[in-house]
Amino acid sequence: MRVALVYNHSDKSLEVVQEFLKLCQDGQFIRDDKNPEVVVTIGGDGTLLGAVHKYGDQLDKVRFAGIHTGHLGFYTDWRDYEAAELIESLKKDQSESVSYPLLDVTITKNDGQVCNYFALNEATIRKVNGTLFCEVIINNELFENFRGDGLCISTPTGSTGLNKSLGGAIVHPFSEVIQLTEMASINNRVYRTLSSPMILAKKDVLLLKPHSHDGMMVSIDHLNYEADSFETVQLKVSQKRVSFVRYRHNHFWDRVEEAFIGARVVSKPCQ
C-alpha cells in the first residue's frame, strides 16, 4: 500500500510520526507522498484540512485517515497512542471508504478571470472595514440584498464549525446540501434579510454579487483571499467528494456528542 504522511510539527506529532514509520518497516507499506492510496494525517483537524487541499486533484483515488495529537479531533478517528492499531487496520484494508460532499466555489473577477476552488468546511465572504452589501441570488433569481458583516456557506461536515457558532443547524454529512448563515445582518425598516439559516438542495446554485468590494475578504476553509477584484462568488454542492477509510470511521452523531457534549447523561425515571 502506498501511504503518504502529513503532519504538524508539535512534539507529540513528531513522536507519533517516528513510531508510525517504524511500524511500517515490514515491507507492506511504501511511503509515497506524491501518488498515495491512503493519506495519514497526524495532528488535528487543521492538519487534515490542509492534507485534503494538498491532494485536491487526487480526491477520486485517495482516502484519508487521521491520528489526532491535540485536545479535539472532529475528523480524526485515531488517538495518538493508537498508531499500531491503525497500521493493523491498514494491513487488512479492503478499500472500504465513506465519502462526504464538498463545496464548489467559483470566483469570477472583474477582469473576466474565473477561478475554481473547493471547501471541506465552509467558504465565507466578509468586509474587514465596514458593512458588506451583497446581492444573494438563488437559481438566477434575486432572493435578498444582504447588509451586515458577512455570509458563511458551509458543507454538512463544516456545519459543526463556524456555521454552528453563527446559529446554523448541524447537518448530517450524508445530506448533499449546503447551508447559508448570516453574520450580524442589519435588519430595520429600510434593510431586511431572512435572518435565518438556509439549507439549499443539491441542485441549487447560490450566487453572491457584492457591491462593496474595498476591504472584502473571501475565505475558503483555511485559505484567505483579498477579494477587492471579485465580481461574483458562485457556490453549490461539488461533484468532488472526500473519502475516509471506513474500518473505524466514527458515526457522525457520535462525533457531535463527543465534541460538544462530552458525556452521555442517562436520565433516571421519575419516582
UniProtKB/TrEMBL annotation:
Looking up Gene3D superfamilies in the UniProt record yields: Probable inorganic polyphosphate/atp-NAD kinase, domain 1, Probable inorganic polyphosphate/atp-NAD kinase, domain 2
SUPFAM superfamilies xref list: NAD kinase/diacylglycerol kinase-like (SSF111331)
> Catalysed reaction(s)?
NAD(+) + ATP = ADP + NADP(+) + H(+)
* Protein EC: 2.7.1.23
Which subcellular locations apply to this protein?
Answer: Cytoplasm
Q: What class of enzyme is it?
A: transferase
Q: Which cofactor does it need?
A: a divalent metal cation
An annotated Gene Ontology molecular function: NAD+ kinase activity
Report the InterPro entries cross-referenced here: ATP-NAD_kinase_N, ATP-NAD_kinase_PpnK-typ_C, NAD/diacylglycerol_kinase_sf, NADK
Q: Which residues form the active site?
A: D45
What broad class describes the main subcellular location of this protein? Answer: cytoplasm
What are the alphabetically sorted keywords of the record? ATP-binding, Cytoplasm, Kinase, NAD, NADP, Nucleotide-binding, Transferase
Residue numbers binding NAD(+): D45, G46, N121, E122, R147, D149, A184
Q: What does this protein do?
A: Involved in the regulation of the intracellular balance of NAD and NADP, and is a key enzyme in the biosynthesis of NADP. Catalyzes specifically the phosphorylation on 2'-hydroxyl of the adenosine moiety of NAD to yield NADP.
UniProt record similarity statement: Belongs to the NAD kinase family.
Instruction: Kindly give the PANTHER family that the UniProt entry links to this protein.
Output: NAD KINASE
- Output the HAMAP family linked to this UniProt entry: NAD_kinase
Q: Mind telling me what this protein is named?
A: NAD kinase
Report the source organism: Granulicatella seriolae
